[in-house]
Specification:
Elements: H1 10-17, E1 30-31, E2 37-38, H2 45-64, H3 72-89, H4 95-140
Helix pairs in contact: 1-2, 2-3, 2-4
Length: 141
């Protein structure tokens, strides 16, 4: 049985909508058809942090319960302060590559942890079966 992907609440979707898709990293130059340079929108630390927080806490809420879901106010406050921190340590901005890498990490890590837990459970079952088999052979002798 396959698990259905969780639906993103509207307030989280709005956070993601603030990140310009296909934007270039800050400081880079793109050109229009005439060869004239055009401004490229930067992804602010606040936008990136807000989108990441919405995604992470949304996933937690889907797995652990609604008490983990951030309100819009919490997301905004955390995004503002976290964004300022990110802008301080990454003054050139993260760009879409950073956003993609962070989102991939958020998507991959829980799956890897889940797989690891399943493997550990399977190993326990195998060890229990081997122990039961060896006890059965020992009592049969």
């Amino acid at each position: 049985m396959t698990e259905q992907a969780p639906q993103m609440p509207p307030e989280q979707a709005r956070q993601f909508a603030q990140i310009p898709i296909g934007s270039e990293p800050p400081g880079s130059t793109t050109y229009n058809e005439s060869g004239e340079p055009i401004a490229t929108p930067a992804i602010s630390g606040e936008q990136l942090t807000g989108a990441l927080l919405a995604l992470v806490f949304g996933m937690l809420a889907d797995r652990r319960g609604e008490h983990w879901r951030l309100t819009e106010t919490e997301t905004e406050q955390l995004a503002k302060t976290g964004g300022a921190l990110m802008d301080h340590y990454m003054p050139q901005g993260g760009g879409p590559g950073t956003a993609f890498a962070l989102c991939m990490g958020v998507a991959l890590v829980p799956r890897l942890m889940s797989e690891r837990a399943k493997m550990a459970e399977e190993k326990k079952k195998q060890e229990a079966a081997q122990l039961a088999q060896s006890e059965g052979q020992a009592s049969g002798d």
